[in-house]
Amino acid sequence: MEMTLRWYGHDFDTVTLKQIRQIPGVTGVITTLYDTAPGEVWQPARIRALKEEVEAAGLRIVGIESVNIHDAIKTGASDRDRYIDNYIETLENLGKEDIHLVCYNFMPVFDWTRTELARIRPDGSTVLAYNQAAVDAIDPEDIFSLISKDSNGSVLPGWEPSRMAKIKELFAMYREIDDEALFENLRYFLERIMPVCGRYDINMAIHPDDPVWSVFGLPRIIISKKNILRMMQMVDDPHNGVTFCSGSYGTNPQNDLPDLIRALKGRIHFAHVRNLKFNTPADFEETAHLSSDGSFDMYAIMKALYEIGFTGPIRPDHGRMIWDETAMPGYGLYDRALGAAYLNGLWEAIEKGDDK
Ligand code: DNO
Questions:
Q1: Model's pTM, two decimal places?
Q2: Which residues of the chain fall short of a pLDDT of 70?
Q3: Which long-range contacts link 343-352 to residues 24+ away (Cβ below 8 Å)?
């Protein structure tokens, strides 16, 4: 396992590479060219400059999160091949720079969905939270303005204002798309990109939908063990793998997280490990990574990863906003650094316990 931290690049992140380098045990970053639009080819010179910047700070690029997928690909529009060609060119450009992991998602319209970005917890920290009644009561066109006031001035991943400005158009694109059509469009995309992934040894790691159920009537497919196994079997290639994200799969308590990890053995290319607390089945909030702060058994999750022989990158996921930090919600320095230290501690204990 390699401990990493997500970094959005110096123009977008309040956290510096120097700070990341000083978190014990963190050796690399998961990064992106945050200002590229879905469908755009990532230019070699920009990838190289990013790599040089990260390496100059004593870290390495362990993977990309995300190379986003254009909606024409997700909806199977007539011009999808043009965007898939661009995606392939981006993968080639990444492969040539020795980057071998790409996290992406296949969620329609919205990436992750939360109804609050700064819910106050008993300890005074603020966290992202989801309440189903709030989603049911709001028009999808208004959700961006509901949450953006708490964004601390950051552009949130998947919630770029330019994208949200086209929300009506986006919903119209998905009018005819159900789960089966989305599966079919994902299959088409994966079949086209697998040869280039094989050539450059690029692991594709699909991120689950978050939460793992339909929001605003949109189709959602990467939600359960059954669906994720279907997704891997339909394009059965070792490079077609997953991002195991405890906080996303765990939004449905029916998803048994350690069991899911075991079922995905060999195909987990990347892990996001964080905790959630359910207040009711329809209301949850993010917490500190520590098991006792939330609803998940973090030891059992790390142990399952250890037991399947997971050697890929892990990153602590959304952190609470603590110690008066102002940063992108979920992506401040302090609580993610605590999360990394805690996950490293669990791992060391599991590893040494196994030696006995
Ligand atoms: C949220 C993230 C997601 C994730 C994408 C992957 O904080 O986990 O935005 O990066 O879904 O494409």
A1: 0.97
A2: 356
A3: 343/3, 343/273, 343/289, 343/298, 343/302, 343/314, 343/316, 344/3, 344/24, 344/25, 346/298, 346/299, 346/302, 347/1, 347/302, 347/306, 350/299, 350/302, 350/303, 350/306, 351/306
The neighbouring-strand residues paired with 4 are: 28
Token pair of 285, please?
A: 């909030």
CA distance 97 to 61: 10
3-state secondary structure 323-339: CCCCCCCCCCCHHHHHH
- In this structure, the residues whose C-beta lies within 6 A of any atom of ligand 1 are 65-66, 103-105, 111-112, 157-158, 207, 272, 318, 330
Q: How far is the CA of 112 from the centre of ligand 1 (A)?
A: 7
The residue whose CB lies within 8 Å of the most ligand 1 atoms, and thus the one to mutate among 111, 272, 286, 331, is 111
Q: How far apart are CA 37 and CA 204, in angstroms?
A: 19
Q: Residues 70, 130, 245, 334: which is the catalytic one? A: 245
Q: Six-digit token pair at 327?
A: 């940063």
What's the 111 CA to ligand 1 centre distance in angstroms?
Answer: 7
Cβ distance 154 to 328 under 8 Å? yes
**Is residue 119 helix, strand or coil?**
strand
Query: What does the pLDDT read at residue 356?
Result: 62
